[in-house]
Amino acid sequence: xxxxxxxxxxxxxxxxxxxxxxxxxxxxxxxxxxxxxxxxxxxxxxxxxxxxxxxxxxxxxxxxxxxxxxxxxxxxxxxxxxxxxxxxxxxxxxxxxxxxxxxxxxxxxxx
Length: 111
Ligand SMILES: [Zn+2]
Description:
mainly beta, NE0471 N-terminal domain-like, four-stranded antiparallel β-sheet, three-stranded antiparallel β-sheet, 2 helices, 7 strands, globular, binds zinc ion
């Protein structure tokens, strides 16, 4: 495994708005995340069945206004987000975040 690719190394993580988390990567790209979508993308054992990979998370149980309460780094490869709905077991590897995030470029019309 190659350690810390620039494209998966955050230089800053911040809340852009109540609905958006932004990560700036070492290669200069900024990714923006809808915080609720990020909550729903949680890959922990209580949200995703470890054996089948099926999603166990019930989207209806996640508040519309869910937001990160705190964000901690996990080693050099991931962050752990403590959510306002009291869920804090999810770990988000940077590589996955890089894939999940949408570049903070101007939105495409009619998308
Ligand atoms: Zn989870």
